[in-house]
Amino acid sequence: MDALKKLEILADAAKYDVSCSSSGSERKSVKGALGNAALPGICHSFAEDGRCISLLKILYTNKCLYDCAYCINRASNPDMQRAEFTPDEVVDLTISFYRRNYIEGLFLSSGVVRSPDYTMEQLLAVVKRLRERERFNGYIHLKGIPGADPKLIEQAGLYVDRMSINIELPTTKSLRLLAPEKNRNEMIAPMQMIKERIVENKSSIVRYKHTPAFVPAGQSTQLIVGATDEVDYKIIKISEALYNRMSLKRVYYSAYVPVGKNAIVSMNHTDALKREHRIYQADWLLRFYGFTADEILTKADPNLDMEMDPKCQWAVRNPHLFPMEVNKVSLLELLRVPGIGNVTARRIMAARRFGPVGFDALVKMGVVMKRAKYFVTCNGKYFGDIDLEPRKLRTLLIEPPKKGANQLKLFDLYPNVFNSGGGHSGLSI
Amino acid sequence: MVYLFDGSFEGALSAVYEMFYAKANPEKDMMCIRTLYQYDIFDQVVECHTSSEYAGKVTASIIETFGEEAFRRIGYAYLSEDEQFGTKLFRALKRAYRLGGNGLENFSDEAIMTLYKCYNAVARESHRMIGFIRFAELDKGIYYSQFEPTYDLLALVVPHFVDRLGDQLWVLHDTKRRKAAFYNKTDVHFSDLDPVEALYYSSREAQYQKMWQAYFEHIAIDERKDKRRHIHMMPKKYWQFLTEKNTK
Asked: Taking 60 as the threshold, does the pLDDT of residue A408 lie above it?
């Protein structure tokens, strides 16, 4: 099998892995050698599904001993064409693509072939050759193979920028159900080890200048959403714990796409993607907006509203905090206003030093007034023109369905009627 | 009053000097590029000369008052090739000098935000181009890239590639502006260069292009195809020079 054919098969096999980020590492270039890593990350292309292509994302092999029900590469999937690279083939592809500026670096994952140790050894050979033989300083994201000797994972950590071990399913129970050969502990233990090594490494870099960096861009993980019946609250709580306790940089979520026969749950596809999108928004609130999981959702109300982004949901539930005076509140409070993001909040803070910020200026600075107007005042003036009453707000904030999306439901046509709750008064509009 | 300058960055800074000196009115007075200016009988025209002394004074003053980062942003804004750049610069500076210090960060001021938008557009496209630039290996082992950015950002992306592709020979060629940067593993030279008629590629170039195109096609998830988002993230104006969008 030639390298082109292998590439086709093993790119196909890798595409369901969500991560593609190349950010967080500042690997410096070395005179006379190839490459560096850009701290903010760089997208080199965008695939036809609209996702960023930053790294050459491939599997080393899609041959796999395991039979995880959600995975396209499961051992029992008969329609699957199988292939396996050699370490040198991966090295050559990476270097040649990098020199042409197609990619930021390599994202290498793999099915488990022969044994976890054997697989991990192959991955290690690839990254070692890239760094030592080719003197490649570009970005490398490597998957740790659960169940492999921790020494191998640790050794690989010295060559890569980011390491990730997929947690796959939100709970041990789901894991037992869908991936019986995998063991939660085999995922958590190496994650813990990587975390401890990163901390240790950071302090020795301070003490000894030439200590080689260990996983400088941190670790991430991936969760499959929708293959089992966990509620959104549970997922957000897990992510929060991973960020806080494992110091993960990212948790990626992948809407379960039923592949082939054997579909586990039948869910409307657009709904699944929408849910994934909402979970990502909630994840953003955790990481960049100072929210806690318990603010975003509660046990009593455990699922995200599909028609409104999570920040709007939070704001609608907390009308007593609004409207906020944009010229008075702190940065953290500004960040809680729907329609104001990190960039615009910082612009507002900068502009405020020179005098009060007005409504027009907010628009120019990039505030999404469609949402923000209900929640802010500028110099005491309110532009929302309504009382902050949750049900009314919700109606105003619901995102209209996109053209070509699902047909309008009765609910969408008469939101006031169906939302006014209790009594028949709503019908008299 | 219309102040005419030659279109160069130095020229614009010199004209700023003259406008401040003449107490030009930021509401009415304009700065125009001499060759683009359409004569109007009611305009009073002032010819500004490009003077490195004046430009130097303005530069020093901007850096001293607002800092180097602010001056860098003004340089970026110039590269937007916006015809109104001179007027926008004068108006923003006029406002900012009254505020001092961080004056150019007063984003609620319209004149300052307008200039900032020019900067932001160039900064954004520069970041994009760093990803979208594609090299092809020529038969002499030179990596050649042709591109036509909306803004004049060749000089802005060069340092990135010097750092990243430091061990290979390369040429970055802006065919729209007919100029190029040449890198010989130690230094960069800028020079005018017309579009090259025939390029001779290395023997393995076609194979890698084919592999990249195959990768691009296979990495997309069919069930998630989203043409709108695809075009939004990677506008069609860039497709001409993207290897993966030119399959034959």
From this structure: no
Q: How far is B234 from chain A (nearest CA, A)?
A: 6
Average pLDDT taken over every residue of chain A: 86
Contacts of B155 (CB under 8 A, 6+ apart): B79, B181, B190
Residue A337 to residues A318, A324, B235, Cα–Cα distance (Å): 11, 8, 31
Query: Cβ contact (<8 Å) for B108 and A56?
Result: no
Phi, psi of A360 (to 5 degrees): -60, -40
The yes-or-no verdict on residue B165 having pLDDT over 90 is yes
Cα→Cα distances A162→A24, A275, A328, Å = 9, 27, 40
Residues 255-294 of chain A whose Cβ lies under 8 A from any Cβ of chain B: 257, 269, 273
Q: Do A31 and B166 touch (CB under 8 A)?
A: yes
Residue with tokens 């010989």: B184
Pairing of strands B169-174, B179-183: antiparallel
- Cβ atoms of A12 and B222 within 8 Å: the answer is no
| Cα–Cα distance for residue pair A406/A386, rounded to 1 Å | 30
Q: Distance between CA atoms of B99 and B108, rounded to whole angstroms? A: 13
Residue A382, SS3 per DSSP: strand
Instruction: Report which of B141, B160, B167, B186 is spatially closest to residue A134, judged by C-alpha positions.
Output: B167
Q: Are A86 and A121 contacting, i.e. CB atoms less than 8 angstroms apart?
A: no
Q: At what angle do helices A390-397 and A310-317 cross, to 10 degrees?
A: 160
List the one residue out of B176, B168, B179, B174 whose CA is nearest residue B138. Answer: B168
* Domain ranges across chain B: 2-125, 133-245
Better-scored residue on pLDDT, A168 or A92? A92
Domains of chain A: 3-296 (3.20.20.70), 318-398 (no CATH)
- Cβ A44–B165 below 8 Å, yes or no? no
Contact B113/A365, CB-based, under 8 Å? yes
Q: How does residue B248 score in pLDDT terms, banded at 50, 70 and 90?
A: low
Three-class SS state of A143: strand
